[in-house]
Amino acid sequence: MKKLYALVAALAVTFLGHVGLAAAQDTGTAPLEVFGRMPAMESVQLSPDGSRLAHIAVVGEERSLLIHELDGMAVIGGVRAGDTKVRGLDWIGSDRVLLTTTATQSGAALGIRRQELADAQIYHIPTREVRNLLTGLDGGFFTKLTGSTIIRGTGDDAAVYTRVVPLRPPARAYLYRIDPETGRGQQVEDGEPDTGGYVLNAAGEAVARTRYEVRSSTWSLQAKRGGFWRTVWETTAPIDTPSLAGLGRTEQTVVIYAAPEDGEAGLYEVDLESGSWTSLPFAFDPDFTVSHPTSGLLAGAGVITDEGQDYEFLDARMAVIWRAIDNAYPGLVVTLRSWSDDLSRIVIFTNGSGDSGTYHLIDLEAGSAQVIGYAYPDLNADLVGAVRVVRYEASDGMEIPGYLTLPPGVTEPRGLPLVVLPHGGPAARDVMGFDWWAQGLASRGYAVLQPNFRGSAGLGDDHLEAGYGEWGLRMQTDLSDGVRHLAAEGIIDPQRVCIVGASYGGYAALAGPTLDPGVYRCAVSVAGVSDLRTMVQWSASQAGRRDSPVVRYWNRFMGAERLGDRSLDDRSPAFRAAEADAPILLLHGWDDTVVPYDQSRIMAEALEQAGRPYELIRLDGEDHWLSRAETRQRMLNETVRFLETHNPAR
Q1: What are the residues whose beta carbons fall under 8 Å from the beta carbon of 322, sequence distance 6 or more?
Q2: pLDDT tens profile 347-404
Q3: Does an H or E element contain 535, and which?
Q4: Is the peptide bond before 377 cis (omega within 30 degrees of 0)?
């Protein structure tokens, strides 16, 4: 334990040395392309025995899996993934790595419409062979992932568990154990209708599962006893379906995200034998949990705060380790990325306060800490703008929290031009830390406001539910109320404001000039919804049901009574195009399977017919999440060009 406390000093020296180096570099304005690049290092994971490190290296559109031996950091393996979209990386023992990727495609064999479908490949370090996870199964199964992957076991006994779906009806998902050495699969659980995810114990045995019957909207938590499944708890959930987070403090309990009767939605521990519910034993209401790397049991939890996030651990040793790490990086957001099984080596990620994203390896046995990579290696501290927490009152008195990013070097902002950058979702939230889009805009001289307007998640049920039915109404004026607040403080010039956003934020950007006029000089919408009624109807056709959970979700947030409700037209920017009082830039990925490209085309045609200024740019090969470096950079370049044309910062 003495080594552990001595490590605090070592960590502080490492961190201060890094900041000093960044501060000593040449100052100036970073090229815009630096912000638009994909992070240079992603998915950093320690091997279970702590001897190796795997990560994804990104150069332009090219991604590569790299494996390092930690003693000396020599590269001992790797494979090019090309321009494939890598979504996850996991170790299977210490000789194999599981790589999860996605592509926009359809599954004609199962009647799956065009969407993001996932593949998993196993990379074997000694032989450098790559094999698709599911191709070793006996014929007759869909070879795309239809659920998450779970790894259980250690060393040569490690295996991958995942759901697989037969190509012939009925479409039921079976749980299979995949041997990573042979590729052969063994059925673990029968396929039953409406079965969702599983929770496995350390031995790979299923102890709990979920079921959801769409027609009745019934969600069930089931436990396995004596070889049979029985229902522990069920609820009617037409929209907000509960979810399983993993094992609880024992293998007889699970952690569930749900709303118990007369209770607020959150994470709870459920006893699989008695069905009793217990609040998790933390000083806060957790936003996420942390599992122990070997047992899979609940080991800790975290909560997102205005200033970043906090962790609390049940295991005494883990708690002491984390306290030392957290204290060594004051003023930064510190995120746990990976533990070795014996907890002797840890990878953390820091960002904020001039840090655009740094990976650190903590070695408790050696009493050392070292920087192992940067998300944005070309951005030193002087090129990153300060981020402040802001809070203001909406017009009806509701408090709206958010973040204000300042141009680099600005410490006393006065009369700055402003970009309002609402997040997507809308049931999501912005958090403290480095945001490439906000920082890219700030680097051009703009202050950037990211409000967590009503309807945002992670701020309590009242804040979320206050957004129901408020698309284009109070959810919209929450944004312009933020503009008025910053103007009253003298921080920004209210005559020099534009709005930019993606997905729901793209809708808000379109609604600014059309539904809340007189505030913005220009608007940029990326993959935004412009015709609410058409959007919901498209979602119904994709799901093959008029009353699917997705349709119910949209109707609740938008305030529709039913599918095809024409009251949505009045809150649809495309129907209000003639009222647009500012030029609009539309950017949309051609491969978007969440908000179809037609939504931007509809808006462009409406603006054209109304004689209002606009531009429409199609991002070929891009999905909903700006997953490709080329199109992400183009989006950022076109956005800044448009802003500087209609609202120059200097």
Answers
A1: 300, 311, 313, 336
A2: 999 999 889 999 999 999 999 999 999 999 999 999 999 999 999 999 999 999 999 9
A3: helix 532-543
A4: no
